[in-house]
Design a protein that fits this description.
Shape: elongated
Helix content: 25-40%
Structural class: alpha+beta
Order of helices and strands: HEHHHHHHEEEEHEEEEEEHE
Largest sheet: 12 strands, antiparallel, barrel
C-alpha cells in the first residue's frame, strides 16, 4: 500500500515536472527593445543579439526613370565620334537637326537635298569638310537617315525606362559588433535599349556597427554608431541607376569608392518606435572612366516612426539630402517613404513607396553628376524587402 502511494506520488511529481518543463520551453524568450525596427529608407537601431544573431535577405525596388536612353545614346555617339574623328563635326550638327524633316526626306527618297543642306550647315558652323567627311555624308541612305533621326529624338526627348535594383545581403550580429555585407545589382527594361545588357553589377558594400539599448520595453532608449563603405566594383552602365533613388547613389557609381559614417538614436514605446539618423557620405573617384570630379560629399539625415502591432508594422519616414561638396544632384532633396511589414516568425516581409517631396530641379545636375552620364531621379519608387532572421 505504502509502495503504491509512493509510486503514485512519484508519478505525479514527474508529470508536474514534465508539464513545467514543457511550459518553460514553450514560452518565448522576452524580446528586447527595438526588435523588428527595420525601416525602408532610413537607419534603425541595431537589434539585440538575442533577437537577431544571423540574418540574410534581399531588397528590391522598381521605378520608371527618364534620361537613361539619353545617356546611352550620347555615349554611343561619343564613341562613334572618337573612332571616327571626321564625324565629330556632324555629331555637333545632328543633335539639333530637324528629325521630322530627316524622316520626310528619307521617305521621299530625295536625299540629295538633305546631304546638300547638311554640308552647307557644317560650313556655316566653320567646318572645313575633309574628303572623308564628304564621303561619309554622300554614303547616307534612307535607313541610315531614319536611324540618325531616331537617335537624335532619343537624345532630346528620352523615354521612360523601367528600372529595378536588387540588393542581396547577409549580416552577423555579435554582442558588440554587427557586420553586414551586400551587393548592388541594377536592372533595365526598355525595348529600345538594344545595346545595353538588362543586368548590371553594382558595387559591393560592407557595414560595421555597434550600439545598445537602455531601459525596459515601453520606455527604452537606443543608439547605434557605424560606418559603411562601397568598393568600386560595378560595371560600366551601373551609373544609369545611381539617381533613380538618390540615397542609393554610392551603390551604383562604379568609378567611386564611398565612405559613410552614421549615427542613430531612438526610443521604443512598445507599440511605437521613433528614430533619428544622420549619415555623412564621401565619394572618391578611384577608377579610370568618365568621372570629372575627384570627390563628392553630402549629408543624409532623417527621422522615422514605426507603429508596431506584433504581426504587422506600419512606418513613415522623412529624409533630406544636403550638398557638401560637388553633389548638386543629391543636395536639396527631400523624400517621403512609407510602407507595411509583416512579421511571420523568422520571416520579415515589407512593401513600401518612396516619393520625392523636393528635388534640385536641374536636369544638368542629373546628367552630369561627377561628369558621368546618369538617369534622373524617379517620380516614385516601389520598395520591397524580405529577410530571414535567427
Amino acid at each position: 500500500m505504502s509502495n503504491s502511494r509512493s509510486l503514485q506520488s512519484l508519478a505525479l511529481s514527474f508529470a508536474a515536472a514534465l508539464v513545467g518543463l514543457t511550459t518553460l520551453v514553450a514560452l518565448p524568450a522576452q524580446a528586447k527593445p527595438f526588435k523588428d525596427g527595420d525601416l525602408f529608407n532610413g537607419r534603425s537601431i541595431r537589434p539585440h543579439t538575442n533577437d537577431q544573431f544571423f540574418d540574410f535577405g534581399v531588397g528590391f525596388s522598381v521605378a520608371p526613370v527618364k534620361a537613361i536612353l539619353k545617356a546611352v545614346v550620347k555615349k554611343q555617339l561619343d564613341a562613334y565620334a572618337k573612332d571616327n574623328p571626321d564625324a565629330a563635326a556632324m555629331q555637333e550638327y545632328l543633335q539639333y537637326a530637324d528629325t521630322e524633316q530627316m524622316r520626310a526626306l528619307a521617305n521621299s527618297g530625295n536625299l540629295d537635298a538633305y546631304k546638300a543642306a547638311l554640308k552647307d550647315e557644317m560650313k556655316k558652323q566653320g567646318a572645313t569638310l575633309s574628303p572623308e567627311q564628304t564621303a561619309a555624308i554622300d554614303a547616307i541612305d534612307e535607313a541610315k537617315l531614319k536611324t540618325m533621326a531616331d537617335m537624335v529624338d532619343i537624345m532630346n526627348e528620352p523615354d521612360s525606362t523601367l528600372t529595378f535594383s536588387l540588393s542581396p545581403w547577409v549580416a552577423v550580429n555579435f554582442k558588440y559588433l554587427r557586420i553586414k555585407a551586400d551587393l548592388a545589382i541594377a536592372g533595365f527594361s526598355n525595348e529600345q535599349l538594344t545595346g545595353l545588357p538588362s543586368l548590371q553589377l553594382g558595387n559591393i558594400g560592407l557595414e560595421l556597427s555597434t550600439g545598445a539599448s537602455h531601459g525596459a520595453l515601453g520606455s527604452a532608449f537606443g543608439w547605434t554608431l557605424g560606418v559603411r563603405g562601397w568598393a568600386p566594383t560595378g560595371t560600366d552602365e551601373s551609373n544609369l541607376l545611381a539617381l533613380g533613388n538618390v540615397t542609393s547613389a554610392p551603390r551604383f557609381f562604379h568609378e567611386y569608392a564611398s565612405f559613410s559614417p552614421f549615427a542613430v538614436v531612438g526610443m521604443d514605446f512598445t507599440f511605437l518606435q521613433w528614430t533619428l539618423h544622420g549619415e555623412y557620405v564621401h565619394m572618391l573617384a578611384v577608377r579610370k572612366g568618365e568621372a570629372e570630379v575627384n570627390d563628392m560629399a553630402y549629408v543624409q539625415a532623417g527621422t522615422g516612426v514605426l507603429v508596431y502591432m506584433k504581426w504587422i508594422g506600419v512606418s513613415l519616414e522623412l529624409d533630406g539630402l544636403f550638398d557638401i561638396n560637388n553633389a548638386a544632384a543629391m543636395g536639396n532633396t527631400w523624400l517621403l517613404s512609407g510602407g507595411v511589414r509583416g512579421y511571420l516568425g523568422p520571416v520579415n516581409l515589407g512593401l513600401g513607396l518612396q516619393l520625392p517631396l523636393a528635388q534640385p530641379g536641374s536636369e544638368e545636375a542629373y546628367f552630369t553628376a561627377g561628369g558621368l552620364a546618369t538617369g534622373s531621379p524617379a517620380a516614385i519608387n516601389v520598395l520591397f524587402d524580405a529577410k530571414m532572421r535567427f
